[in-house]
Amino acid sequence: MSGRNFQVLETCTLIFPIRHHVLNIFCATLPNCKDFTFEGYPLDILNGISSNKLNNFSVICSSSYKLRGSRQLARLSSQALRESRLAPRFLQISIEAKSEAWTKALAFMSNLEELVIHNAQPSSLGVKVLQSLVVHPVDANNLCTTATSMAWNTPVCPSLKRFGLRYGRWLRPSEQFDLIPVFMSIMQSREQSKFSLHSFRIWTRIDQKDPLELIVGLSISLKGFEVLRDYAMIADHALATLVQLPATEILKIVGGSPIGSTGLPLLKADPLVTRSTDNFIDSIQGRTILQQKQAVGEKLFKVIINAFGVKGARAPKITLSLLDTEDLRALAHLMTSYPAVLREKVFMQVAAAK
């Protein structure tokens, strides 16, 4: 591919393994390419690609180290994007980098109309970075100036119309979400100035199809922010509340309710695991209730001891308690598909026994 001019190519996907010996000599021209996707490491390879008619640019950096990602983001933004060899209108980027690197990188994205940043978790991109998207008045101390007549400084990403944050996972129970005020500041300041946003979307899980929209009709969606606050509260309280329900009710919630894509730190159940669990329960249906409990109990006891670390006399007592109070099929599904929920149920009983 190096050294060639691809005149006809309109869509390109480049998956680049680590080949350091070609970094300094790789070059390619894509004069008519509209959609370009890059996945790999390092991003330095993009410095040798020219595509000035680019609409959509997707970058996935395979390095998970923030220090390394920061260097890569700095080079991509200051060289490829700044020099307009790659000048996309829409950018989706997945890279773990430090706040300072993100703040500097955003300053080189002046032509972007849409930016979606993929983050491992909400803490990946903090308040300091997002504050750089806020538009500030030229004279912030002039209280007599109205919003309509006020002069505004040009912000980073002045052409930005659509912004999104796509999280690989949502909050865990011990984590706090402190970004709502800065989200509001970004939208309010841009709405009052000539740099208004048309869309501000949040994905709380990597496989979430429909994002939460915080802007409706060029104005802040109060309903959207209410939902976002609920998402943050759910992360704090939902799991503790959820485990107090019977296993059958828990499965109805995590299996079919949107709560599973908001605050609960749960992965979607693997269909193969679900089928295997159902097959196991079906295979013991012809036995007596006592024999069914023994079959499930053998597996449950091992999980409680080995996976959850419950020792001593409490392990068999908790095992018997769950077998006597829960539907066996539902209990088996918690054990195989939602171990985090079962763990909380177990430790709820541990705490109650003290």
Structural class: alpha/beta
Give helix and strand order, one letter per element, not per position.
EEEEEEHEHEHEHEEEEHHHHHHH
* Domain tally: 2
The oligomeric state of the chains shown is: single chain
Give the helix level as a range of percent: 40-55%
Principal-axes shape call? elongated
Instruction: Please tell me how large the radius of gyration is.
Output: 26 Å
- Low-confidence blocks of residues: 257-262
The termini sit apart by 67 Å
Number of helices: 11
Share of β-strand residues: 5-15%
Which strand order does the major sheet show? 2-4-6-7-8-9-10-11
Average predicted confidence as pLDDT: 86
Number of strands: 13
The biggest beta sheet reads: 8 strands, mixed
Please give a quick description of this structure.
The protein has 354 residues and is of the alpha/beta class.
Describe the structure.
The chain has 354 residues and is an alpha/beta fold. The protein folds into two domains: 4-238; 269-353, no CATH class. It is 40% helix and 15% strand. The protein has an eight-stranded mixed β-sheet with strand order 2-4-6-7-8-9-10-11, covered by helices on one side. Strands 1-3-5 form a three-stranded parallel β-sheet, with no helix packed on it. A two-stranded antiparallel ribbon has the order 12-13. Helix 7 (271-283) packs antiparallel against helix 10 and helix 8 (289-307) crosses helix 9 (314-325). The radius of gyration is 26 Å and the shape is elongated.
